[in-house]
Design brief:
CATH superfamily: Spore Coat Polysaccharide Biosynthesis Protein SpsA, Chain A
Radius of gyration: 31 Å
Protein name: Galactosyl transferase GMA12/MNN10 family-domain-containing protein
Strand content: 5-15%
Largest sheet: 6 strands, mixed
Distance between the termini: 123 Å
Helix content: 40-55%
Transmembrane segments: 30-52, 58-78
Number of helices: 12
Keywords: Glycosyltransferase, Membrane, Transferase, Transmembrane, Transmembrane helix
Strand order of the largest sheet: 2-1-3-6-5-7
Family: Belongs to the glycosyltransferase 34 family.
Number of domains: 1
Number of strands: 8
GO molecular function, one term: transferase activity
CATH class: Alpha Beta
Order of helices and strands: HEHEHHEEHHEEHHHHEHEH
């Protein structure tokens, strides 16, 4: 009987085996994908550097105003002629320095304020401005009964720059003059500060302050506007509330810079309660007619006119 010889062993191609050509092709694909991935990561990294500083803080993109000036207008109590002067003054200042204005109507916040004094409107107005301009850095609330008198001075050079602010900061002084036991910290630096405000002869004054956008700002505004504080019936409403928050919460005090009154809150000669050297002098950035809306013997529109005319004259001379 003859047996068939087994087939000779040799290289047999497996039906599912990859050819050397396919392997080489696959390697080239993987190399290309790897190179593309690295390139994409590099692009994302470079883009991230355009929008974030090395410390992780947002950098203002082109076209975004660095400063938003917040003004709460009472269109019921004051004439349109008076308010238009305020608006025109603000718009001129903002246009000069690349800022923008946020003009809020007091009545828009009535449902939030409830039965509390109308002056509380400043807090939701600033929060509203931040929501409207989420990429802007600083929010400068300025009482409507005030105007810019030195339009060429930018807020950056006047208060916001590192050297300038550290020069202005009043360290180790009573938060509420003249003898509050709570004092401003002596070790604070420019980068620590989120809230810049002045005091007059009697205490903090919220008619003019600067707040930096961020988590702290939102925390402060939420705390400041707490319903319990609004119902507490503080004599000076939101002003006394802020004094309370600053003195009882070191977290807030650690972010606060008290600056000389005339820097952003100089009172007119007719205003009472100015701090020492807190009354307006020629060359000051702002004049504020503090109390003109609460003293029945005074008239805001009448007090504004001579200073507004002086400001308008300066514009013509430029």
């Amino acid at each position: 009987m003859q047996f068939a010889l087994p087939p000779r062993k040799g290289p047999v191609a497996h039906p599912y085996a990859r050819s050397s050509f396919l392997t080489l092709h696959r390697r080239k694909q993987l190399t290309a994908i790897a190179v593309l991935s690295v390139a994409l990561l590099a692009v994302f990294f470079l883009l991230s550097q355009l929008f974030y500083s090395s410390a992780g803080a947002a950098v203002i993109s082109i076209g975004t105003p660095s400063v938003v000036i917040v003004t709460v207008l009472d269109r019921i109590l004051y004439s349109d002629k008076y308010l238009q002067k305020i608006i025109r003054n603000r718009e001129d200042y903002a246009e000069r320095h690349g800022y923008t204005n946020f003009f809020a109507n007091l009545t828009d916040y009535n449902s939030y304020i409830g039965h509390a004094p109308q002056s509380w409107g400043v807090v939701p107005a600033v929060r509203h401005a931040m929501a409207t301009h989420p990429s802007s850095t600083y929010f400068f609330h300025l009482d409507p009964h005030a105007i810019f008198m030195a339009p060429s001075k930018s807020l950056q050079s006047h208060i916001l720059s590192k050297h300038r602010l550290e020069t202005l900061m009043r360290r180790d002084v009573p938060v509420v003059p003249p003898d509050s036991i709570i004092k401003t910290f002596s070790h604070l630096r420019h980068e620590d500060i989120d809230l810049m405000v002045t005091t007059d002869a009697k205490g903090l004054n919220t008619g003019s302050f600067v707040l930096r956008q961020g988590d702290f700002a939102r925390f402060l505004l939420d705390t400041w506007f707490d319903p319990l504080f609004r119902s507490y019936n503080f004599a000076k409403a939101e002003t006394h509330t802020l004094e309370h928050v600053v003195q009882w919460h070191p977290t807030v005090l650690a972010r606060l810079a008290l600056i000389p009154q005339r820097v952003i809150n100089a009172y007119s000669p007719d205003s009472i309660g100015a701090a020492v050297d807190g009354t307006y002098k020629d060359g000051d950035l702002i004049i504020r007619f503090f109390g003109c809306n609460t003293d029945p013997k005074r008239n805001c529109e009448r007090e504004l006119d001579p200073y507004y005319n002086l400001w308008a004259k300066k514009l013509k001379l430029e």
